[in-house]
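Bench log, entry 3. Co-assembly request; chain sequences pasted below exactly as received.
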Amino acid sequence: MSRMIVQKFGGTSVGSEERIASVAQIIQKASIDNSVIVVVSAMSGETNRLIKLAKSFGENPSKREFDALISTGEKVSAALLAMALHQIGIKAKSYTASQISMRTTDSYSKAKILDVDGQKIQDALNQGIIPIITGFQGITESGDVTTLGRGGSDTTAVAIAAQMKAERCDIYTDVDGIYTTDPRVVPEAKKLDKITMEEMLEMAGQGAKVIQIRAVEFANKYNVPVRVLSSFEPGSGTLISLEEKDMENGLVSGIAFQKDQMKYTLHGVSDTPGIAYSILGPLSDANIEVDVIVQNISVDGKTDFTFTVSKEDEHATSEVIKQMKNSLDFDDVIVDSQIAKVSLVGVGMRTHAGIASTAFKALSENDVNIQMISTSEIKITIVINESAVTKAVKALHEAFELEK
Amino acid sequence: MSRMIVQKFGGTSVGSEERIASVAQIIQKASIDNSVIVVVSAMSGETNRLIKLAKSFGENPSKREFDALISTGEKVSAALLAMALHQIGIKAKSYTASQISMRTTDSYSKAKILDVDGQKIQDALNQGIIPIITGFQGITESGDVTTLGRGGSDTTAVAIAAQMKAERCDIYTDVDGIYTTDPRVVPEAKKLDKITMEEMLEMAGQGAKVIQIRAVEFANKYNVPVRVLSSFEPGSGTLISLEEKDMENGLVSGIAFQKDQMKYTLHGVSDTPGIAYSILGPLSDANIEVDVIVQNISVDGKTDFTFTVSKEDEHATSEVIKQMKNSLDFDDVIVDSQIAKVSLVGVGMRTHAGIASTAFKALSENDVNIQMISTSEIKITIVINESAVTKAVKALHEAFELEK
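Structure output for the full assembly:
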């Protein structure tokens, strides 16, 4: 019996008729030795075109209609890719989320996958047909179309790989793998052949941009090995492996960074029990993902509560804070949109001390002012001014000798 | 209880963000006194853009994938129109064919509507929500997407009007009604305030282009009054009425004509019983609509069989004829792509003699050579050379004094 693999192609990989034809060749090759299931994104530019159309009817269009609108892009690319495969003699059929019952929660634009009916996919495979599935989207219990958020096609691919018990999920993109940091910022950045799921989770969350964090979470939960590789050039990419990494591989695996962040500080909050919940609860209810959170010690019964969110949630966050004023006592809100996050990630951190001090020394020597610090077992995150990002990443890359 | 009407907006009516906003105003006005259900086409140009994408993967892409692809256009315009209505404070929701179970046959690109679940539409209306339904498309028993053929959105609208027992179906387009003939060809052409279903059936079938023939058939079958009017300028349009027209209204109501036709003659067919079926059967199986059919008398046990099809079926027709060669004995095939059809239509023809002779006299005086003639109770159709269309239509328009 042949091995089953899922291949996911991102927007740039299917960005033109020529690219789609070239992706068909990749699928054809893979299908010689494997049972292949394909997941596609919209052609690059298409989702933005649709968003622009929507914005002409107001800045905050109905989320149900917005999802119905932007989910059409993947339907287009899936059908075109099926045609491209037919053209080279490969049997293929496109499937929408509705057709394979890709069920999600009803949080429009940020829906979470609940389950997927693998039978239709299996039926296609049994008939020697390659199923081409629309990424990024699902349907609710009542049949409304949802989307999974930017980059959600990765999550679709991994969810299908998990459901179908595929051997591997290959995420094809326009980069040839995961690097120690962004090579556009640090030219010495090195491609990693392998990275652990845990490291990747921390990297993706900080905006490594190659693969969506939820996809890695899914992969982690269901033990799906994921490989990230390029559809533009041959190469084995980076395998996001299930195994623990050899300790020799170094302390820090990579440096992630992310701009387009907002920092909110609720100043002078009355320090009563349950503050954190009364702030984070409403944000979560509004589907806003809060990232770094810092609460300072209380002075005179008052405290400052600071958190960061993605800039795209700016409007929603302001609305939530406005309503919070009714139930929570605080003096004022300080908003900073000129910030960025930088994270050091590495499984090695667990067992080695001194990483934080090496990092802060390097930053200090380069005059990078640190605004917030947050640490986990395998990650150190700092929030700094947006303008200092390049300087900070270069300094850290050098300090941990990642170019070697 | 307010009256229920269906409003259908064609491609040019929703051809841009501005047009969509203007259509929202039309819907708003209608919704003051009526329960409104809306059906939309794709934004003009969109379907052609998608077809062009498909054609880059071969001239004859898989029909299943082709339908999956081109059906995305209406999903876009439906969602955008819902957003435009929200912007002016009107509750609205877009619905795809799948969401309202618009079931069709599985003849891709030429599917016929089987039934539609009115409950979801009624639920929306009961909640004061205007349902915006994607025209032109349906789903098969197994959930595959189908399309109804060019102009199929009209049929969607009438089918929904019939299902919901609406009082009227308003077809908004870029012309202000039905004319005695094409005003671009005969400037004296007059707008008709009213036309009977039967006349309209004959007009549409011959390419009046304002409304699709199947839509009128549906309207006729389910007694749905249809009105054709412009979304660009105010006006009452033309009502396609259920009642018989007053006889005084003249013998001929209009002149329709259609180019983009192909004429096939199977020359020297052995005249055995069942010829017509053995030719028309395979064409019908291939979903090719044969229009004018003429079989000449038999000479020496051989006959000529001539029929016309739409130019878009050229490829399919050639294929079918090629295969026919195996089972049918004929000498050769004569193909003429330089033809056009011209039809005189009028309920009055039933009770008045002499119309044919008036017509043929006018054509003869203008040197129009007639290739084929076919008549029905309320229509006379002639096939002529494509280059003679304007001359023929003008001559007939004048002969029957339609400008008065």
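Chain B has two domains: 3-174, 255-399. Chain B has a mean pLDDT of 89.
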